[in-house]
Amino acid sequence: MTTIEPTLSLNTHQAARPRGHAQFRRIVRRVQPGLLLSIAVIAIVVLWAIAPGVFATQNPVLGVPVDKLQPPSALHLLGTDALGRDLFARIVHGAVHSLTGAFVAVGVGLVVGTALGVIAGSSRGFVEAAIMRLADVLLSIPALLLMLSIIILLGFGTVNAAIAVGATSIASFARLARSEVVRVRRSDYVEAAFGSGGTFAGVLWRHVLPNSLTSVIAFAALQFGSAILAISTLGFLGYGAPPPTPEWGLLIAEGRNYISTAWWLTTAPGIVVVIVVLAANRISQGLGGHGR
Amino acid sequence: MQRYVFSRIGQALLVLWLAFTVSFVLLQALPGDAVLIKFLSPELGLSPAQIAEIQAAYGSDTPVILQYFAAIANFVTGNFGYSVHAGVPVSQLLAANLPQTLRLATLGLTLALAIAVALAFLSTLTRFAFLRNALQALPALFISVPTFWLGIMLIQVFSFRLRLIPVINPSELQGLILPTITLAIPISAPLAQILMRNIDAALTQSYVEVARAKGASPAFVLWHHVARNAVLPTLTIAGILLGELLAGAVVTETVFGLNGIGGLTEQAVRSQDTAVLQAIVVLSAVVFVIANLVVDLLYPLFDPRLRTRQEVLA
Q1: A288 neighbors A215 (Cβ within 8 angstroms)
Q2: How many Å apart are CA A86 and CA A93, to the nearest integer?
Q3: Are A233 and A112 in contact (CB under 8 A)?
Q4: CB spacing of B251 vs A274 below 8 angstroms
Q5: How far apart are CA B119 and CA B188, in angstroms?
Q6: B175-192 pLDDT, tens per residue?
Q7: Among A40, A97, A262, A275, which one has the highest count of C-beta atoms within 10 angstroms of its own C-beta?
């Protein structure tokens, strides 16, 4: 039941535009508070990434050694770390690393995976079989191990970690895009486009691709949440951004050494990750995504 | 039926061979010569002749394509090469670390199943809507929690705040409690979601209505009519779950400082020990392929409807 509802709301949304006011009010009533809250959370985190200085005035990299390991207070909302750096400022300044990392990761998976899927879906025979077998193989290796293999190849670093995370979603994107293309290809308007003399590439670009994209985009939103999770895991293991960077996973890894005395150093960044991932998943569900 | 079995085994072998090839290309062919990178550093002060000798010993002076065929032959016979970092055969490292990980994974999977079944059944049986909503929202929360952070939080709460489990020198059993919970919670989420979806679907079937009309209690209907139909489809994600278990073990063993395949993986990446990582990747692909093969072959035995359909097809 729950899986059907989001697609319904998406459809009414599309149908509503020409109808006008009465329908619009019905949509507003349909919008769940959880979805609004999720959008607000993502909006705030995006603002953190764009203008961190507005939200956190303290320096995220240079600390005040005298103020080290202070518990949360009015001055330091989430306390300070061993070098006297304000944790809230570090989390706010770290948003840009997690977000850009997730964007790069989803971008890699979306572009490469969709391209492969569209090629597989629109060509027949050997090319399709080869691409889809390759996707099967990539799916047979656990995502984390595939990421680690790519990181060993590319080396440590923020961008490399993001590419590794993105590479693990290529196979899923390719499968989804292929099935969408195969579905759209069978429809009458595509046959009509071919019948009225459209070239293969032209029909693909003008008719097949736009109509296959809706579910691919919803899947991309879902991948965004898991990408943030994966990037923080790689950061925690020490394969992502190097130490002075306030990346969220790295913050938790650093806080681990003070687990007995300074609980806030591990607790706060983790809660932020959980909230952001929950919000991203909720939005994906609202887009008609495949709830995991 | 026989043709079906053979074609499935053939497909499984094909995927395995391709997985080996992908991991070989990623980890052995592309990074260049791992042996050279390690021994060329000037601090070691090796002469070119000595380096050539080491290369010959590792077999890395031959063309890549020959190395590839040699590696296939070696993997088939159970020789996974040498760990450049530890200086011992990879198979020896794996054999030493596998038992701990198997034990952790078995415990984790068992607990995950228990959590998933409890969540799904309770959310179906409860009379209170708020409790049902809360139980059904839990899997979404479990998926969003970073595994490593969950482990750290458990240590913080149970070891440092409540002092229930000692940090220093815990007994073997005590030392396994928190890692098992850490491993189980993310694994239980997809299981619980599939179970809940299947139970919902099964509850709308007419045989449930008939059973209710005859006066069966909700718990009786759930156990005797719905459970079997809802649990079976869960088997289909067994392969993915085993892979997730191994990936979860990497993080869990790192957080808790346990020995095992996961800890070995973490070290291999840190020290760029490609031979070890390749062996683990291939091992995980083997586990995935075998799990899927077993499920595909056994599924018709559990579900009579599939059995007849396949006989018709064959």
Answers
A1: yes
A2: 11
A3: no
A4: no
A5: 9
A6: 888 889 999 998 888 888
A7: A97
- The stretch B97-106 carries a mean pLDDT of 87
Helix (H/G/I), strand (E/B), else coil: A90: helix
Give start-end residues of each CATH 1.10.3720.10 domain in chain B: 90-313
Distance of alpha carbon A10 from alpha carbon A287, whole angstroms: 7
A152 interaction partners in chain B (CB closer than 8 Å): 27, 31, 268-269, 272, 274, 277
Q: Is B275 on the interface with A (CB under 8 A)?
A: no
Q: DSSP states of A147-170 as a string?
A: HHHHHHHH-SSHHHHHHHHHHHHH
8 A C-beta contact, residue B52 and residue B39: no
Residue A112 confidence (pLDDT): 92
- Which residues, in sequence order, are CB contacts of A65 under 8 Å at separation 6+? A83, A84
pTM (two decimals): 0.80
* DSSP annotation string for B228-283: HHHHGGGGGGHHHHHHHHHHHHHHHHHHHT--SHHHHHHHHHHTT-HHHHHHHHHH
pLDDT class for B158, splitting at 50, 70, 90? confident
Per-residue pLDDT, A291: 40
**Domain ranges for chain A:** 99-183+217-287
Q: Inspect the interface and report whether the beta carbons of A259 and B155 lie closer than 8 Å.
A: yes
Q: What is the distance between the alpha carbons of residues A270 and A278, in angstroms, rounded to a whole number?
A: 12
- Domain B90-313: give its CATH code: 1.10.3720.10
